[in-house]
Amino acid sequence: MSDGNVPYKLAELIAQCDPDSPMPPELLEWEQAEPIGLERDVVAAYSPPS
Asked: Is the pLDDT confidence value at 27 over 80?
């Protein structure tokens, strides 16, 4: 697909989404996990001081 032609449009993909659907448990667990390694360094660099 290097020619820029895609079989779908972003608006079509978004229209298929249900913003009221619950977040899957695996994603909730991932979102609540503590950052590790480089993630920890990046989060610390962009977090406001407490």
From this structure: yes
Tell me the C-alpha distance between 1 and 8, whole Å: 12
pTM: 0.41
Mean pLDDT of 19-35: 91
Structure tokens at 29: 């667990």
Domain residues of the chain, as ranges?
22-50
In angstroms, the CA 10 to CA 42 distance is 29
- Residues 27, 35 contacting (CB under 8 angstroms): no
CA dist 29 and 23 (Å) reads 10
